Amino acid sequence: MADCIFCQIAAKEMAADLVYEDEQLMAFPDINPQAPVHLLIIPKRHIESLADIQVDHGGLLASILLTAKALAKKYDLTDGYRVVANTGNAGGQTVPHLHFHLLGGRDLGWPPG
Ligand code: 5GP
Ligand code: ZN
Questions:
Q1: Which of the following is catalytic: 38, 57, 97, 99?
Q2: Closest ligand to 2 CA?
Q3: 63: exposed, middle or buried (C-beta count within 10 Å: 0-12, 13-18, 19+)?
Q4: Longest pairwise C-alpha distance within the chain
Q5: Which of 4, 8, 32 to mutate to test the pocket of ligand 1 (most atoms within 8 A of CB)?
Q6: 38 catalytic residue (yes or no)
Q7: Cys-Cys link to 77, which of 18, 34, 35, 104 (CB 3.0-4.6 A)?
Q8: Residue 47 located in a structural domain
Q9: CA 24, CA 47: separation in Å to the nearest integer?
Q10: Ligand 1: which atom is nearest the Cα of residue 85?
Q11: What's the CA gap between 77 and 81, in Å, rounded?
């Protein structure tokens, strides 16, 4: 989608400091980090949110979670971390392209605000 910032990052029309990339996915630091490690993992294809996933996205979603696990190891988040996908307005989603936050490096607390 032309006006989607994460599609622009996926198309390399907008810069991001990639920490992971394969055919389906990209991961890069959040521009406004909420923890010492705050990465975003996105599918390159445009899916608006978790509310739009279908059964045939299963492989993609598994790849995202395995990438989160690998990045948590790479960034040495041995004490734990959080993977979260804000979904829709009340869920706090501000970019309407599916993305998973990987947060770690501090005590994150629960429940979130
Ligand atoms: P959401 O609020 O939708 O769960 O998460 C969107 C995230 O994208 C926010 O944490 C925000 O800081 C981040 N973000 C927004 N625009 C950009 C950008 O252009 N580059 C990067 N790296 N992160 C962005
Ligand atoms: Zn998009």
A1: 99
A2: 2
A3: middle
A4: 39
A5: 32
A6: no
A7: 104
A8: yes
A9: 12
A10: 4
A11: 6
Q: Count the domains in the chain.
A: 1
- In this structure, which amino acid lies at residue 106? R
Both structure tokens of 6: 């994460």
Residue-range definition of the domain harbouring residue 71: 5-104
DSSP secondary structure of 7-58 = HHHHTTSS----SEE-SSEEEEE-SS-SSSEEEEEEESS----GGG--GGGH
pTM over 0.90, yes/no: yes
Looking at residue 75, its amino acid is Y
In tens digits, the chain (113 residues) has pLDDT values of 889 999 999 999 999 999 999 999 999 999 999 999 999 999 999 999 999 999 999 999 999 999 999 999 999 999 999 999 999 999 999 999 999 999 999 999 999 87
